[in-house]
Amino acid sequence: RLGQIDMDEYVQANIKSPDEFIVNFKGIRNKRKDIDKLPDSEKIGCCVISFTTLKSQLEDMLHRFNDTLLITLRRNLLEEFKEVDQFLEFANEKLSTRPHTVEEIGNAKRQWKEIDAKKDEMKATSKVCMEKKKLLLQFASGSAIDVGEIISKMTNLDGEGGRWDDFDIAHEAFNDMIEEQKEALKGTLEEETVNLNVQIDKFGNR
Question: Maximum CA pair distance of the chain?
């Protein structure tokens, strides 16, 4: 059946999760073992039937299928990680920005709610990305598939001191930071009110 379909289209449409990739990579390994068990030739009556060409074609087909799996895995991983990367960039920028006005505090709270609503989904996607990265590094070894970009982009994603760790710290500290800014803003407004009243009194005296 592999020889009768568009492999790239088939893999892209039907193989998506880490478990599905594992099943197919292992399936290729098992099929190669089956091919190795085939004799190079077999004598039937007075004729000798050679299986060398057939074995070569089957190996070539499995090789192409394996490369298609790796290319699709790499492409899917980059697409999914791009979404995680953009979320973390946006979230860490917004969560580390201190608002200085009532309007900015309101905007900050709204953005925090948006980030909070999406974080579980993004963490789940990030976990899948890590699983796919592990698979790619495992099965791409010895192939022509470039994994350098994956390694570079996903460095420092998880673990203590990683990007998700920084996110969790900023996410937890957000409400305390907002309260601090409210108190600071309250003090500033009270000071401005006192100064304004002084100016009003001076104007009245004049």
Answer: 127
